[in-house]
Write a structure and sequence with these properties.
The chain is an alpha/beta fold. The chain folds into two domains: 64 residues, no CATH class; 124 residues, Trna Endonuclease, Chain: A, domain 1 (3-Layer(aba) Sandwich), CATH 3.40.1350.10. 38% of the residues lie in helices and 29% in strands. The chain has a six-stranded mixed beta sheet with strand order 3-4-5-6-7-8, with helices on both faces. A two-stranded antiparallel sheet has the order 1-2. Helix 6 links the parallel strand 6 and strand 7. The longest helix is centred in the middle third of the chain and has 44 residues. It is elongated, with a radius of gyration of 25 Å.
Length: 224
């Protein structure tokens, strides 16, 4: 998350300020408010307090905060951000999967891949490790394996390609099928959509209440 990233990128300068710029004789107290998504640092001199929300919890220190004090609070706040990040990522992921799955048959049919069945969350084991394909769409002689990402990056595409290399070793029911692949996303970074195109993948973008395949008419999907 951007807020979390901001705090950790600023950590060194903050610690430097606390330990070198704040005189002990000033009786300066830093009140650190921590809630599930709030991290506010307020400086207090004497007994005058800057504006703050009365309903927010606060911790008082009667001495200048030490490195260990601040580091502990960063750790506790990071745990809260991790929980929030995991929650929102999973919820968005489910939403995008639902969106893509709902339109997938129609989209592939337009590309002359007539889908007769779909499966979601296909877990499998390879060399002792567990993996998962988000969606598998198939007919009598073709199968399309779909990876769904909320925020698509090049490393996600590479990891998906790595999983695809395991497909025929595990899903033997598709031994005689043409295996295609698609990557679906809500938001794209690092031009990962163009990278996916060059790898021979169908590129599916979730838009509003539906999804579209962004590959142009000249695109030829790779058979894996």
């Amino acid at each position: 998350m951007q807020i979390r990233k901001f705090f950790f990128e600023s950590f060194q300068s903050l610690i430097s300020y606390l330990l070198t710029s704040v005189p002990v004789t000033n009786y300066v107290t830093f009140n650190i408010f921590v809630s599930c998504n709030i991290f506010v640092i307020v400086k207090e001199k004497s007994k005058k307090t800057t504006v703050r929300k009365a309903e927010e919890p606060e911790t008082y220190y009667n001495k200048p905060v030490s490195f260990n004090d601040v580091w502990y609070m960063f750790q506790e706040t990071d745990k809260k951000f991790q929980k929030l990040e995991g929650f929102f990522s999973s919820q968005w992921g489910r939403f995008v999967e639902s969106l893509v799955e709902g339109d997938l048959v129609r989209l592939l049919n337009k590309r002359h891949i007539i889908v007769s069945q779909t499966f979601t969350n296909a877990k499998f084991f390879f060399k002792g490790k567990e993996y998962e394909f988000d969606i598998i769409a198939a007919n009598g002689n073709e199968v399309v394996v779909v990876e769904v990402k909320t925020n698509l990056k090049i490393e996600d595409v590479r990891y998906f390609m790595e999983k695809l290399s395991m497909f025929r070793s595990v899903f033997h029911q598709y031994d005689n099928y043409k295996v295609y692949a698609a990557i679906a996303y809500l938001k794209c970074h690092e031009e990962a959509d163009k990278y996916s195109y060059r790898q021979g993948l169908f590129v599916i973008k979730a838009t509003g209440r539906s999804a579209i395949i962004t590959n142009d008419g000249s695109f030829v999907p790779k058979i894996f």
